[in-house]
Amino acid sequence: MTQQHIDKLREQFRTANRILLAVHERPDGDALGSMLGLADSLRREGKTVTTYAADAPAASFAFLPGIADVVQEVSRPFADLDLVVLLDCGDVKRTHVPFREVRDRRPVVANIDHHPTRTNVDGADVVDVNVVDTQASSTCELIYDYLQGVGADISKEAATCLLTGISTDTGNFQNLATTHTCMVAASKLLLLGANLGKIVEATYRNKSVDALKLWGRVLARLKYDRAKGIVTTAIRQRDYQELEVDPDAAEGVANFLNSLQEAKVILVLKEEADGTIRGSYRTTHSDVDVSQLAEKFGGGGHVKAAGFSVKGTLMETESGWEVVREEAGRKK
Length: 332
Known about the structure:
Layout: H1 3-15, E1 18-23, H2 29-44, E2 48-52, E3 83-87, H3 99-105, E4 108-113, E5 120-121, E6 124-125, E7 129-132, H4 139-149, H5 156-169, H6 180-191, H7 196-203, H8 209-220, E8 223-225, E9 230-235, H9 237-243, H10 253-257, E10 265-271, E11 276-282, H11 290-295, E12 300-301, E13 305-316, E14 321-325
Parallel strand pairs: 1-2, 1-3, 3-4, 4-7, 9-10
Antiparallel strand pairs: 5-6, 8-9, 10-11, 11-13, 12-13, 13-14
């Protein structure tokens, strides 16, 4: 994070007393960690902070300090807010914040992200202060940079939250998002009291027998298109129902498959109850940008990890799994 970014954010936080922090739907470790780590610091400064996620956090994140305070509905009128901060969203619409009401009431809106972020809603840019650094491993790394930059005391609770996001977005320091800067940040967070053992136990060693049966189904559906170098698989709604597992049981499948030596691109397609298909792209190849693939479906993300969500159905072919889009009958 640049000094200019730090100065801009510091001024907004200095003048704001009532603050809403919001993250993307189905919040992951980086979204929750950045929100809760920042909230902890702001509350210690005497700020009134609401933490909001449209979807309830997965049970695997129950260990995070402050997780019980995350709400799924914002009860405070937007007219009462001084500042709205969006974290790790990629697209402001994914927060489900009612931006029309926000713009009418005029609290300042800031965005902090390590993804290129779409900030347009209904033809208008809704973000006043946009802090994006695509070189950072995670939004948690950016929040750490900000807190360090302003000389804030980072509690051991906040340190655990921030290390969670760095760990989960780097695949526990194994994927290509791992950089020397995030390793330095992680080291300092450990010195501040972050509990890496608890993070790893909760986010990586958390599979039940039924969850592994789900993974077994996903692995059995693997399709490899040798000509394109793409490995695809699918998760169906009936899998959750028949195995009586929560959809969160499938988290991590795409990252796991990214270790396949033969594949240039991994695509995991998840069938949702509302007819939506969620796709997760992964790659470890330097000549592949999966964010460009996701953009074809209106999604986005990073060069090596991206995703999308479209209305449609799954179709199995000899060479792989495809999405047939609902609106036009188009295939992946």
